[in-house]
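Usage

Read records sequentially. Each one opens with the input sequence:
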Amino acid sequence: MTAAAVLPFILVFPILGFLVNGLLYLASHSKLGGKDSPLGPHGGGHGDGHGAPGSDSHGSGASSHGAHGGHDSHGDHHDIPFKAVHTWVGPLASGLACLTSFLAIFLWWGETHGEEAVVAKLWTWLPMGTNPGWFGMKPLVVDAALRLDPLSALMIGFVTFIGTLIHVYSVGYMGHDPGYGRFFAYLNLFMFSMLTLVLGASLGVLFVGWEGVGLCSYLLIGYFYTKDFAADAGKKAFVVNRIGDAGFLLGLFGCFAMFGTADFGTMFDLASKAPATYAAGGLVTAACVCLFVGACGKSAQLPLYVWLPDAMAGPTPVSALIHAATMVTAGVYLVARCNVLFRISHEWAVKTLGENASFFSMLTHDASFVVAVVGGATAIFAASMGFAQTDIKKVLAYSTVSQLGYMFLGCGVLAFSAGMFHVFTHAWFKACLFLGSGSVIHAMSGEQEMDKMGGLKGMVPHTFRTMLIATLAIAGVPGLAGFFSKDQILGETYISGHPVLWLVAVLTAGMTAFYMFRLVKMTFYGDFRGTDEVKHHVHESPWTMTVPLWILAIGAIVVGWFGVPNFLWAKGNRFEAFLEPIFPKLPPDWTPVVHEASHATEWSLMMTSVVVATIGIVVGWKLYSGSYPFAVPERFAKRFAGLYRTVRNKYYVDEAYEWLFVERLVKRGGRFLWEIDARVVDGVVNGTRHLAIGVSEISSWFDRVFVDGAVNGVANTFQAAWRGYGRLQNGQTQSYALSMTAGVLGLVCVYILLS
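and closes with the structure output:
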């Protein structure tokens, strides 16, 4: 058994789960007369509740949590057709993919010791013959092939493991939803798409998975499709991602034109051996920027971030899967995968502009600098929006956008290992936070507003403890996962010569600590602010939800130790060493300068981030202590009402996009195009019609007057002559004699006259 032989089975199990769950759901759906609701006394399920925008629609008050009959049961298993099958098939498909992934990683490590990639070619997908490129004629072939190397091994490891935990969690969370089978079918398809994306051996196969996760996000965000806000959120995610995908395709075509292939191994080998050839004229930079546009759409970076907060309209397990383990990490993965192209772009910019180039010159020449600037700007911008949000899932959504900015910042300063390390650690604590928020919503009968929570610490102890651990991790408390990965990005940003971006990232770290502890205080401390009916039904979630929470919380504690900085522990950063083989070596004159820092500088940077995080935690804790409404935040909101409203309304970016793109570009632009069509295009067509009719009228008149006139004139002349001659031939002898006499006399007269 080899790793290459095992790789395809990683994809087989999720797609089989999708087919089984989907077909069973369709079969039961057809028996219900087209309704998306099972028969039974509890058929409404969780999907019929709470209709506020961005809500989970997770229940209908206390009724979905045991009001019927005074028990905590959510309904009978027989209400949902094939529920037992869905319950087993969904998580089992993901679990088997997880086990197969670790088996493939184990075999790969035994075969290569992590130093080389293993490629499994399934079939020749697109044999397109010899095609002209920018550097001559090259045979263009795209194989359906899978690639296992340190980067894809990392991704399939945590994607399948955390994805399986989310599947298990969903059994408890979605167990009473009428679309239970449809949900697991979509979830399995999501896993298949993400695994295709990270295992693809070429940009072509990666793009298949890329579009697959885009489709699944549309299906799962708009899962409660009977509610307008959910359907709109799904469409918004789909449309915004199509904008990014247009950039991705341009980058893909650029790589085809440059290298004559989209295969990662061949493409990166060519680029690393002749970087000057492909960097000339900014070709690599243009391709990288286009690929990064795609990454901005998929990973919710400025200006294409607006879909991700609205993605909270989907069920909470979907939010956890999108934010932690699948879709939003795809953009960071793409940049890290194409690291050699971004490194070449950076060196070309340095060689072209010099070491002291201006900010704007670097933006136009260095794709990696574009990544760093966009990432840093997104990080602090999204963090500020978390200050005033009161929907618990919206706070976490903006937190995700901000943390993704951190990841891109790391990749942009060429610290790709640090960026991917934060992807890895973030997956654990962000999945824990989202699933924890789902547990809170579950306990609160569907309520998501933190203004109506409080005092839940003792009511849902497992949820509280796990969310507190994850909050400490994301805040950057020393010893937890987020501290190690975030500190690496901060250190690399400063050492690489970007003090402004470092300052932005440090401020973002403090802001993150503040709004996350604001979330903890408003949710779990103080007095309960909900209704008595809701309070009566508050209860801890079942084990299928709390066990995944504890596993993720433990992960948020321990996974950071894989990347202990080398200045703290010699060769302690095993994560960086593990990823080392994915960075092809460039010629010496094209290898970016490695910036070194003294231990004193390293310690200073680390202590600065710790101090800033501590300040954020303390300020958040103090400001939101006491009774609701909290005194200091309330005074601030009144004193700076305009600023508060602006932040609360997310800087009116959605409204600006609505005004600029929907109302002006789409609607008015559509009206303008309609006018062009009606007055210009149709005018040309109708004018041609009228001209043809006019010409035909003239032709008809000419035909009638001249052609028909000439023909008919000749006929009329002969006819008149015939009639006149006919009168002379009357059959009377006297008339003939008279005519002869007249003729003779006429001839005599003519003769006399002529004589």
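Summary fields computed downstream for this record:
- The chain has 28 helices and two strands.
- Residues 37-78 have pLDDT under 50 and may be disordered.
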